[in-house]
Amino acid sequence: MKTLIVSASCGQTATNNATYFVNPDFPSLSSQAGVCEITVKKLVPQISQLRLDFIHFTIGQPNRKTGICEKDVMRVESSTNIEFTVCGINNGQHVYIDVEDTTDPIKIVMNLTKESYDRIWEIKLVSNKAYVALVHNTVAVARL
Fold it and tell me: In the CATH hierarchy, which fold is given to the domain comprising 6-143?
């Protein structure tokens, strides 16, 4: 039995579970500046969390003094009060985003600076129903 692998990149919408959000030149490195975003739609209303598995994730590093992502940054936007941003190298990490209290689509936005920097990302997006979810109204980061 073959497994369907679905990937999405800038300007596309993820409507399948286990969609891979990839940089435009994937599997090659990309040095394009600008904004790259995808929209993630909940498959069913019972979806309570979105798990992001960072298979490959290398974008600009945070400020060395403050630790804040000032240049390249990935942001998850939803109508809930949870905000999540990340930058740098995060290969092999994952994060759970609480989406239980929203029916609106979730946006994943890569805001990339004009500086010349080779980037790559491959993020597996997995929707979890309530019975497999972690604690409500949280963002949890863990290593794969």
Answer: Jelly Rolls (2.60.120)
